[in-house]
Amino acid sequence: MTQPSPSSQRIAIVGGGLGGLAAACTLAARGLSVTLFEKSDWLGGKAATLDVDGYHFDMGPTILTVPSVLRKIFAEAGRKLEDYLDLIRLDPQWRCFYENGSILDLEEDRERMALAIGKYADDRSAQGYRDFLRFSERMHAISDRFFFYRNVGGMKDMIDFSVGFKPKLLVDVLAMRMGHSVAGTVRKYVPDHRVAQMLDHFTQYVGSSPDQSPAVLCGIASMQTNEGIWYPRGGTGAVPAALAKLAGELGVTLRTGVGITRLLTDETGRQVLGVETETGESLTFDAVVSNSDTVRTHRELLAAAVQMNRRFERRRHYEAACSGVVMYLGLDRAYEHLLHHNFVFSKDPEEEFATIYRKGEPADDPTCYVCASARSEPGVAPPGGEALYVLVHTPYLRPHHQWSTMYPAYRRKIIDKLKRCAGMPDIEERIKVERYLTPQDIHDRYRVFQGAIYGLASHGKWLGAFKPANRSPDFKNLYLAGGSAHPGPGMPMALMSGWIAADTLCQDRV
To answer: pLDDT tens for residues 165-177?
Structure first.
């Protein structure tokens, strides 16, 4: 039987977040006909922007790491990333503020950082940092071999058992320290609690507790150390803008302001045939890539396919990652002691994480992430001013959380923390513009599972790193992309998920 040519294959993308845009560009670059549907009037999902009275804010992700993922997507079309984005490398990468008034900068150069830790803490922690990065490098290498750029939904997808036993495979599996957590592994190497707290926060890229996340996620530290932290001029909103421009050049049909209410299936409920829009259009496609949240894709867009959805629900317990309160503060005077990225740490991280992730309540003493993007691009604020982005992680939405009444008191906690620990005693006097999002706002605005910023939690010391596979095992012609699909949340992983979904779809159609 003759296979259809790529150009005759019609693909729908549901959702124009980073994963959906990455999938659309990859598929179009390979010659498929792509239509992308996005309910909102902007593209990029949570990578949205806010402009108020001369202040420019990134509303969602602000840290860009692993730019090689973006380069791979642009290379699919024979383009160079640098022709679409102006990337600024940030070093030091973070500034850490502690309750005792001390400050520690995370520097990109490993040896320079180790020496700084030796002066800040002790020689054991300095050597521990070197050893931790070697372990992180190993986890990164294992992830590259078995996890990244592949359709993975569980351990069986990582390892090809048909080739027989290989001693090197056993060595890799043992090296992953399965059954051990990120927090335990960090403290195995680094005795100083402040340095350990800094390293714990690599898992905050995936919105999960370091004491419940598997040790393999320590590989995030190596990924950031190797490729650096970058700021796209114009903010991280420039990333979806660049992808949308590429998609347009490749002939992708971009339908913003068009929501999808359900995925059409055949009479068996096992095969996806197309989409139905909010206006009642029924459109057939050869395959669908859903960049909508994976849980909500199944529970809402595929609600009629009850039998197949039961398989999805029984496969695992789908726990949302954390949510957050985000404040957008336009200041008339900048704080020059801030770096572009800053963490204002809690006094007791164990209590903080237990409150958020185990008790399901906002922490009394939260860690505040503060992005001061005017350090790299003064034009994001009026002259001399600052466009501050402040993020505090909170639990995902619980039925008793009423953020409309909870927010004012929690805002006070955040402001008091910044005054006390981050050298901002007069911050309220400097605020000229103020906007915010609560977990309820995030749930409603982005249509994510229980208000989660980072998709599904990475909890579970054995299998916590696994997310739903990019090729649906339940519905033919359905592929999944975004932070709640493999390989998980964060800008590079969401982008990678789109590439994997597109690549897997293409492989299936050869």
So the answer is: 455 554 555 455 5
